[in-house]
């Protein structure tokens, strides 16, 4: 349940979805590259070139390259998820721009650098105080520890974000163990989101009862706590609440406090099912041939199966079809882990969250 707590904390805090941009559609092509097409005919892709670099391109002349060395700073287990996130971020940033060519790379001193053909530049390095430092043109920001082992973000626009030692202790016992590369991506994210503001503050702390607390200078307050049964409860000062608990059958039950309830678990045959209190049911099942099927209210909506040529074929009731050669499928398994995770990724791209 610890992972649920931190996932809930950051996802609810952000509440930003790029899946609705321009009514577009995400998909993975037969080579395992990410692609996006919108109704206004905007098209974009994220692929890997022969040198191992990640390359973003769109039909508005924009091209952004992440060098292999830069990409390898992302922990291997997180790369599939980060790649999805990165692609969405790049689409959001470049869809209204034209002919921008940029490169992210690591220099000979190990510093991360970015430059583009519009004169914009960025450098990420450690200064003599051991702080991680970002500077771009006239903007400066740092991320480092104070004497109490709290991690502090500061920039030259008067913004400050504080992660308490106790809060970081909970994070390190969860998904990440203080990985330095995670620290770099944290700073880049803060620069993008907080760096736009002036004289703004945020604090992430843990109270005396072990509950996670968040507050900012704009009046937002959030609390996440565990109940006596190890369930998670989220509340904020804007009237939103959410609880996540496991029942005796190991099903996860989610209640938003507004009358909406969802139950997530596996049936007696081990098949994943999601039900809500409005009569809707979603399920992912494997048939006797080993093919995966996604159903909504008992109607088959999508399948992922192997054909006689050892290729994998995805199809759904929206008319989407994707075929993977044996070689492409092996790449997908290497990237996502197993066929269920590939199927989940495809469902997310074609159906959105459900």
Summarize it.
By secondary structure, the chain is an alpha+beta fold. It is 22% helix and 37% strand.
Q: How confident is the prediction overall: mean pLDDT?
A: 84
- Total helical elements: 7
> How is the main sheet built?
25 strands, mixed
Radius of gyration: 22 Å
Instruction: Determine the N-to-C terminus distance.
Output: 21 Å
Can you give the helix content as a percent range? 10-25%
Strand content: 35-45%
Which class do the helix and strand fractions yield? alpha+beta
The stretches of 5 or more residues where confidence is low (pLDDT under 50) are: 1-23
Number of strands: 25
Descriptive overview:
The protein has 354 residues and is of the alpha+beta class. 22% of the residues lie in helices and 37% in strands. It has seven helices and 25 strands. It has a 25-stranded mixed β-sheet. A hairpin with a 5-residue loop joins strand 21 and strand 22. The longest helix has 16 residues. The protein is globular, with a radius of gyration of 22 Å.
List key phrases describing it.
single chain, 354 residues, 25 strands, disordered N terminus, alpha+beta, 7 helices, 25-stranded mixed beta sheet, 22% helix
SSE layout and pairing:
Elements: H1 2-14, E1 25-28, E2 34-37, E3 43-48, E4 54-58, E5 63-66, H2 68-71, H3 79-94, E6 101-106, E7 112-116, E8 121-126, E9 132-136, E10 139-145, E11 151-155, E12 160-163, H4 165-172, H5 180-193, E13 201-206, E14 212-216, E15 221-226, E16 232-236, E17 241-246, E18 252-255, E19 261-266, E20 272-276, E21 281-286, E22 292-296, E23 299-306, E24 312-316, E25 321-324, H6 326-336, H7 339-351
Parallel strand pairs: 5-6, 12-13
Antiparallel strand pairs: 1-2, 2-3, 3-4, 4-5, 6-7, 7-8, 8-9, 9-10, 10-11, 11-12, 13-14, 14-15, 15-16, 16-17, 17-18, 18-19, 19-20, 20-21, 21-22, 22-23, 23-24, 24-25
């Amino acid at each position: 349940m610890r992972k649920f707590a931190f996932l809930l904390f950051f996802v609810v805090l952000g509440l930003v979805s790029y899946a609705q941009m321009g009514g577009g559609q995400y998909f993975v092509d037969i080579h395992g590259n990410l692609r996006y097409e919108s109704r206004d005919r905007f098209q974009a892709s994220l692929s890997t070139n022969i040198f191992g670099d990640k390359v973003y391109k769109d039909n508005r002349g924009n091209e952004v390259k992440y060098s292999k060395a830069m990409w390898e700073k992302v922990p291997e287990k997180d790369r599939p998820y980060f790649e999805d996130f990165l692609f969405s971020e790049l689409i959001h940033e470049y869809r209204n721009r034209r002919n921008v060519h940029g490169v992210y790379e690591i220099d000979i001193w190990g510093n991360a650098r970015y430059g583009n053909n519009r004169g914009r530049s960025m450098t990420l390095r450690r200064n003599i105080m051991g702080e991680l430092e970002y500077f771009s043109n006239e903007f400066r920001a740092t991320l480092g520890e104070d004497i109490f082992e709290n991690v502090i973000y500061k920039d030259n626009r008067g913004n400050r974000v504080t992660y308490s030692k106790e809060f970081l202790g909970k994070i390190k016992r969860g998904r990440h163990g203080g990985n330095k590369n995670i620290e770099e991506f944290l700073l880049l994210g803060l620069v993008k989101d907080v760096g736009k503001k002036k004289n703004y503050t945020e604090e992430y702390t843990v109270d005396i009862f072990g509950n996670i607390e968040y507050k900012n200078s704009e009046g937002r307050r959030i609390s996440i706590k565990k109940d006596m049964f190890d369930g998670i409860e989220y509340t904020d000062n804007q009237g939103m609440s959410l609880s996540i608990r496991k029942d005796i059958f190991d099903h996860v039950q989610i209640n938003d406090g507004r009358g909406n309830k969802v139950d997530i678990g596996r049936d007696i045959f081990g098949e994943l099912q999601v039900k809500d209190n409005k009569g809707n049911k979603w399920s992912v099942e494997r048939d006797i041939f080993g093919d995966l099927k996604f159903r909504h209210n008992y109607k088959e909506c999508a399948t992922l199966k192997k054909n006689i040529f050892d290729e994998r074929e995805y199809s759904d009731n929206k008319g989407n079809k994707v075929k993977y050669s044996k070689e492409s499928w092996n790449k997908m398994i290497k990237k996502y882990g197993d066929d269920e995770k590939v199927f989940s990724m495809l469902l997310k791209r074609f159906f959105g969250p459900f």
